[in-house]
Design goal:
Layout lengths: L22 H47 L3 H10 L11 H28 L5 H10 L15
Helix pairs in contact: 1-2, 1-3
């Protein structure tokens, strides 16, 4: 950063690259962070799958009840026996899939991403994006401030 830039027009220290850290390292950590963000999105979709499947099963049970009331006990019994409460994967309901993903993939992904940031840049996050913000914003223009008004 240039010496003539006012101090209040600079990012917070959490968003500045520590001395001696290369552009390649910042870029690599940016890629690692982006990969984690993609895994976070996948996790969100997995939770949506979990909730939608659970809702479908509840609605299915309601439909079974309605079929019985409508006089179609044989069809209701078959659906109830074969599909209501069925595993979505061998031996698993969706909550078990979510737990396995969280415990065996997503948590490790988060831990390793954090460990890499801790070791390489003192735990600082989003350094690549912070650099982009500094390069792309218009200094002195409303809505382009370096930091929030209230810290």
């Amino acid at each position: 950063m240039s010496e003539d830039v006012p101090r209040d027009d600079l990012p917070l220290s959490d968003h500045t690259t520590p001395a001696g850290v290369s552009d390649a390292t910042v870029g690599a950590l940016g890629q690692l962070s982006e990969a984690l963000e993609t895994a976070d999105r996948a996790r969100g979709h997995l939770y949506a799958f979990h909730q939608l499947t659970g809702s479908a099963d509840i609605k299915l049970a309601e439909a079974v009840s309605s079929l019985r009331v409508a006089g179609h006990a044989a069809i209701a019994d078959r659906i109830d026996k074969e599909l209501v409460g069925r595993n979505v994967l061998a031996g698993r309901w969706t909550f078990q899939i979510v737990e396995d993903y969280d415990d065996n993939y997503w948590s490790l992904f988060r831990d390793l991403e954090r460990a890499a940031r801790d070791e390489l840049v003192g735990g600082r996050r989003h350094l690549y994006e912070a650099r982009l913000k500094q390069a792309e914003r218009t200094r002195g223009e409303a809505g382009h401030e370096a930091t929030p008004d209230e810290l």
